[in-house]
Design brief:
single chain, 510 residues, alpha/beta, 6-stranded mixed β-sheet, P-loop_NTPase
């Protein structure tokens, strides 16, 4: 018993010492952010030209250096960076980001506010993974009786960012995530990948009385701050478990930061049994602040689309294979097998040297999903896709799979070569939302009337197509391909090979 009392006293002294260090760090951050908030009331570009930003930021840097000499620098060095607002301004000053987007500035201020709240509530939110691990394992039974374990909602609400495609939602969320201290329990993952992980865990805990509770406990043990990119619900299986899953996660203290193209009330609109999904929307709005990004700028389409591998016309199939072979090199492509989750396997018609070839039908007309595509891009960095059709009511399911394929490809920063019936925008001409369908005017010509028979009215697909078009545009831009070559060169520890332009009027450089 004496040893237990002695341990408690040591713990109390440790907590007091940590609280003193933590309060010093918080005061420093408030001073820095007070300066930054004053800056945002005027034009940032004007301040930069006049040199005021450097004048204001220099004292903070000096203060930080002096602080490092008096407190344990190793425990607060991540906090000392000042949060997403400071990093956002640094990237603008260095030319990495475009200045003058008031919508992005408004969003980064919301992320900065959340960052500061997390700093202030670090203890209550149990963010420090090392301190949390002290109470895990065999000692958890003892700790649960000596110290009250919080099992309520976190004192900090999360953030749900939504808006149009290419407006910088993912970039801003990632910027926020990168500024969080490395010792915190945090995770950043694409929504598709997250749900695949959830289903895989549920399968693993089959037979348990409440497997969803076990899965929620596992996720919350790994991450208190959960950053989900591209929140989009199209699968009825996902829709049915989301409410219970996130109720469990939120009750275990998880804080959600997410991006989406859809407002919370528009999620899973028109989906099967949506009335069973609606409680999740209420839960989401209760535990997250919904913040719209109203910018109309699609930054993905600002790149230089002077080079690319997007060929319009079925007669380019031979050229596609030639281009693929030139990227592969001397190796001979052959059929391969890719293992995905839960024992599933994906047959690759031709693959070699990180490059894979598929007819469109083999990837999007078969019962495949995000799990198969994630498995594919874990092994291959380049995909040659032959014969992408125009989409409509006759191939709606294939359109959904193509949207998912492009999402996974973009998440994995892969390279695409493809032949298609039309350019990215024209591929989705017949995919419309309900609102767009009401605006379609009667057509007179016989050919146009035949087009209308393939019109697909689908809200989810109608919204998702804009993201897919935007991403196809960026994937075929010079900047994206050069960045791909640079990363590939670093991985192979050799200088990147220069891209070869394709000089042909029928090639769409999206």
């Amino acid at each position: 018993m004496r040893s237990v009392v002695r341990s408690l006293r040591q713990l109390r002294r440790f907590n007091q010492y940590h609280a003193e260090r933590h309060s010093s760090a918080v005061r420093l951050i408030r001073q820095q952010n007070g300066v930054m908030c004053g800056l945002t009331s005027r034009s940032l570009s004007t301040l930069r030209r006049s040199g005021e930003i450097s004048r204001f930021s220099s004292p903070g840097v000096e203060l930080m250096r002096s602080m490092f000499s008096t407190v344990a620098a190793d425990s607060i060095k991540d906090i000392g960076r000042g949060g997403p607002m400071v990093e956002y301004e640094r990237r603008i000053a260095s030319g990495e980001l475009v200045d003058g987007d008031s919508f992005q500035l408004d969003t980064i201020q919301e992320l900065q506010r959340l960052y500061e709240e997390l700093i202030q509530n670090e203890e209550d939110c149990q963010l420090d993974r090392y301190k949390s691990s002290e109470k895990s394992g065999r000692s958890r039974w003892l700790w649960s009786r000596l110290i009250t374990q919080p099992s309520t909602y976190a004192p900090v609400k999360g953030l749900y960012l939504y808006g149009g495609v290419g407006t910088g939602k993912t970039m801003l969320m990632d910027l926020f995530y990168e500024q969080l201290p490395s010792n915190w329990r945090k995770k950043r993952i694409h929504f598709h990948d997250f749900m695949l992980n959830v289903h895989s865990r549920l399968q693993m805990h089959k037979g348990v009385s409440d497997p969803l509770d076990v899965v929620a406990a596992e996720i919350s043990d790994e991450a208190i701050i959960l950053c989900l990119d591209e929140f989009m619900v199209t699968d009825v299986a996902d829709a049915m478990i989301l409410n219970r899953l996130f109720r469990q996660l939120f009750s275990k203290g998880v804080i959600l930061v997410s991006t989406s193209n859809r407002a919370p009330d528009k999620l899973y609109e028109g989906g099967l049994q949506r009335d069973l999904f609606l409680p999740f929307i209420d839960t989401l709005k209760e535990r997250c602040i919904a913040h719209p990004i109203g910018s109309a700028v699609d930054y993905r389409q600002l790149g230089s689309a002077e080079q690319g591998f997007y060929f319009v016309g079925k007669h380019y199939s031979t050229l596609l294979k030639q281009k693929l072979q030139s990227l592969i090199g001397d190796e001979e492509p052959s059929p391969q097998t890719v293992e995905v989750i839960m024992g599933r396997k994906l047959q690759v018609p031709l693959g070699a040297n990180g490059c894979a070839y598929f007819p469109f039908e083999d990837l999007c007309d078969r019962p495949l999903g995000a799990a198969d595509y994630f498995g594919l891009f874990k092994k291959f960095h380049t995909l040659a896709l032959d014969g992408v059709p125009k989409f409509g009511s006759s191939n709606r399911t294939a359109a959904y799979r193509f949207v998912t394929l492009v999402d996974v490809m973009y998440e994995n920063k892969a390279r695409l070569l493809c032949t298609a019936e039309a350019g990215p925008i024209e591929l989705f001409d017949n995919i419309v939302t309900v609102a767009e369908a009401h605006k379609v005017s009667p057509r007179s010509s016989r050919s146009q009337k035949s087009d209308d028979t393939d019109l697909c009215v689908d809200n989810e697909l109608g919204f998702a197509k804009d993201r897919t078009i935007s991403r196809l545009t960026e994937i075929n831009s010079r900047e994206y391909l050069e960045d791909f070559e640079g990363r590939l060169g670093q991985q192979q520890q050799q200088p990147p090979q220069p891209l070869q332009a394709v000089d042909n009027a029928d090639v769409v450089l999206a």
